[in-house]
Amino acid sequence: MGLSLAKLHLAANDVSAAATALAFASQMKQFRTDEWPMGREAAGLLAAHGARLAALQVYTALVRAKAPTPEALKAVLGEAQATADAAGDRALSQEFAHQLDELSGARIPAKP
After folding, report:
1. Do the Cβ atoms of 83 and 76 come closer than 8 Å?
2. How far apart are CA 112 and CA 59, in angstroms?
3. Which domain holds residue 84?
4. What is the pLDDT of residue 47?
5. 87 in a domain, yes or no?
6. Could you tell me if residue 77 is inside a domain?
7. Long-range contacts of 13-22 (CB under 8 A, 24+ apart)
8. pLDDT by residue (tens digit) across 17-50?
Protein backbone atom coordinates (compact mmCIF):
# COMPACT_ATOMS: atom_id res chain seq x y z
CA MET A 1 0.00 0.00 0.00
CA GLY A 2 2.85 2.41 0.83
CA LEU A 3 4.45 1.77 -2.55
CA SER A 4 1.19 2.55 -4.38
CA LEU A 5 0.71 5.70 -2.32
CA ALA A 6 4.27 6.80 -3.08
CA LYS A 7 3.67 6.36 -6.81
CA LEU A 8 0.55 8.53 -6.58
CA HIS A 9 2.51 11.24 -4.76
CA LEU A 10 5.29 11.06 -7.36
CA ALA A 11 2.73 11.43 -10.15
CA ALA A 12 1.60 14.62 -8.40
CA ASN A 13 5.26 15.74 -8.07
CA ASP A 14 5.14 15.52 -4.26
CA VAL A 15 8.52 13.90 -3.59
CA SER A 16 8.40 14.61 0.14
CA ALA A 17 5.08 12.82 0.57
CA ALA A 18 6.34 9.94 -1.56
CA ALA A 19 9.40 9.55 0.66
CA THR A 20 7.15 9.54 3.72
CA ALA A 21 4.97 6.85 2.15
CA LEU A 22 8.08 4.74 1.52
CA ALA A 23 9.45 5.15 5.05
CA PHE A 24 8.08 1.71 5.94
CA ALA A 25 10.58 0.07 3.61
CA SER A 26 13.63 1.60 5.26
CA GLN A 27 12.39 0.37 8.64
CA MET A 28 12.16 -3.25 7.51
CA LYS A 29 15.02 -5.36 8.83
CA GLN A 30 14.26 -8.31 6.58
CA PHE A 31 12.27 -9.13 3.48
CA ARG A 32 10.59 -12.41 2.59
CA THR A 33 11.24 -13.64 -0.93
CA ASP A 34 7.74 -12.58 -2.01
CA GLU A 35 8.34 -9.06 -0.59
CA TRP A 36 11.70 -8.71 -2.29
CA PRO A 37 10.46 -7.10 -5.57
CA MET A 38 8.47 -4.53 -3.59
CA GLY A 39 11.53 -3.72 -1.50
CA ARG A 40 13.65 -3.34 -4.60
CA GLU A 41 11.15 -0.99 -6.21
CA ALA A 42 10.90 1.06 -3.01
CA ALA A 43 14.69 1.32 -2.78
CA GLY A 44 14.91 2.41 -6.39
CA LEU A 45 12.27 5.10 -5.92
CA LEU A 46 13.95 6.36 -2.76
CA ALA A 47 17.32 6.51 -4.49
CA ALA A 48 15.94 8.19 -7.59
CA HIS A 49 14.28 10.91 -5.56
CA GLY A 50 17.15 11.87 -3.29
CA ALA A 51 16.49 9.69 -0.25
CA ARG A 52 19.73 7.76 -0.71
CA LEU A 53 20.33 6.91 2.95
CA ALA A 54 16.86 5.39 3.27
CA ALA A 55 17.42 3.54 -0.02
CA LEU A 56 20.69 2.13 1.32
CA GLN A 57 18.88 0.80 4.39
CA VAL A 58 16.45 -1.03 2.11
CA TYR A 59 19.21 -2.31 -0.18
CA THR A 60 21.18 -3.59 2.81
CA ALA A 61 18.13 -5.51 4.08
CA LEU A 62 17.49 -6.90 0.59
CA VAL A 63 21.08 -8.11 0.21
CA ARG A 64 20.77 -9.98 3.52
CA ALA A 65 17.49 -11.61 2.47
CA LYS A 66 16.98 -14.56 0.16
CA ALA A 67 16.71 -13.15 -3.34
CA PRO A 68 14.22 -14.65 -5.80
CA THR A 69 17.07 -15.40 -8.24
CA PRO A 70 20.84 -14.93 -8.40
CA GLU A 71 20.28 -12.50 -11.30
CA ALA A 72 17.96 -10.39 -9.14
CA LEU A 73 20.58 -10.28 -6.39
CA LYS A 74 23.26 -9.23 -8.90
CA ALA A 75 21.01 -6.43 -10.17
CA VAL A 76 20.27 -5.20 -6.65
CA LEU A 77 23.93 -5.27 -5.71
CA GLY A 78 24.70 -3.09 -8.73
CA GLU A 79 21.90 -0.67 -7.84
CA ALA A 80 23.01 -0.63 -4.21
CA GLN A 81 26.61 0.07 -5.17
CA ALA A 82 25.57 2.96 -7.43
CA THR A 83 23.40 4.39 -4.65
CA ALA A 84 26.22 4.10 -2.12
CA ASP A 85 28.53 5.87 -4.58
CA ALA A 86 25.98 8.67 -5.05
CA ALA A 87 25.59 8.96 -1.27
CA GLY A 88 29.35 9.18 -0.84
CA ASP A 89 29.52 5.99 1.24
CA ARG A 90 32.68 4.45 -0.16
CA ALA A 91 32.88 1.65 2.40
CA LEU A 92 29.37 0.43 1.67
CA SER A 93 29.97 0.79 -2.07
CA GLN A 94 33.04 -1.40 -1.78
CA GLU A 95 31.13 -3.96 0.29
CA PHE A 96 28.41 -4.21 -2.34
CA ALA A 97 31.05 -4.44 -5.09
CA HIS A 98 32.83 -7.20 -3.19
CA GLN A 99 29.61 -9.18 -2.81
CA LEU A 100 28.83 -8.69 -6.49
CA ASP A 101 32.30 -9.88 -7.46
CA GLU A 102 31.92 -12.98 -5.27
CA LEU A 103 28.50 -13.73 -6.73
CA SER A 104 29.82 -13.27 -10.25
CA GLY A 105 32.77 -15.54 -9.56
CA ALA A 106 35.32 -12.82 -10.17
CA ARG A 107 38.69 -13.17 -8.55
CA ILE A 108 39.23 -10.54 -5.91
CA PRO A 109 42.84 -9.41 -5.51
CA ALA A 110 44.33 -9.90 -2.07
CA LYS A 111 44.82 -6.79 -0.01
CA PRO A 112 48.47 -5.91 0.67
Report:
1. no
2. 29
3. 2-104
4. 94
5. yes
6. yes
7. 15/49, 15/50, 18/45, 18/49, 19/46, 19/49, 19/50, 19/51, 19/54, 22/46, 22/51, 22/54
8. 888 888 888 888 899 999 999 999 999 999 998 8
